[in-house]
Write a structure and sequence with these properties.
The protein is α/β, with parallel strands linked by helices. The chain is built from five helices and eight strands; from the N terminus they run E-H-E-H-E-H-E-H-E-E-E-H-E.
Length: 182
Amino acid sequence: MKFKSSIMDADAMRRSLVRITHEIIEKNSGTEDVVLLGIQRRGLPLAAMLQENIFRFEGKKIPLGRIDVSLYRDDLTELSDLPEAGQCEIPFDLNGKTVILVDDVIYTGRTVRAAIDAIFHHGRPRAIQLAVLIDRGHRELPIRPDYVGKNIPTSHSEVVSVMVEEFDGRTGVALYQLEEGK
């Protein structure tokens, strides 16, 4: 992959997450019965940032959990003959709650579909809302985020990389071009 451009630095990511936080609070008339579920891997630190923002703005620490979609994907046989069982960590009841599902990038919508399957395996929420940092288009399923940090029109030969301190040692979003023939 070849670096193409920087889309967001750490400050731009922070501002986008603050805006998304305010939108979540406004759309839900507060945070009563709202829970956050971060999609493994980079959705989880983004969900934690939203949780911190909600605490800062509302004075309430809302529940945070983790969804691993490994066993719920519709392309399991393409990825591996024996997919590894991922662990969902949902230390609270989902029934009757408004679940804010958080991911870094939405592309085809298949990861989100798998996450919704995982959620219903663990309970029956009142509603599921989707928050993503980057929407890059190219949906294959009728899934649309409720909250978007930034829309980035991309080609299929481009890769959007969200970096978070916990995994990458830095924070930001970059665009890469796949090299031809690879």
